[in-house]
Amino acid sequence: MQKLVVVIAALSIIMDGFDGQLIGFAVPVLIKEWGVTRSDFAPALAAGLVGMGIGSALAGLFADRFGRRWAVIVSVLIFGLATCCIGFAANLWHIGVLRFVAGLGIGGALPSSTTIAAEFTPARRRTLAITATIVCVPLGGMLAGLFAGVVLPHLGWRALFFLGGSLAVILGAALLFTLPETPRFLVRRPARWAELSRLVGRMSRPVATNCAFTDISEQRIEKSEGFPALFEKGRARDTIALWCAFFLNLLAVYSAFTWLPTMLTSEGLDVAIASSGLTAYNFGGVIGALTCAVAIARYGSRWPLLLCSLLGAATAFYLTTVNIALQTGLLIAGFGLQGFFANAVQSTMYAVCAHVYPTTVRATGTASALAFGRLGAILSAFAGATVITAGGKDGYLVMLGIAMTGLAFSLAVIRRHIPARAT
Question: What is the pTM of this model?
Answer without folding.
Answer: 0.74
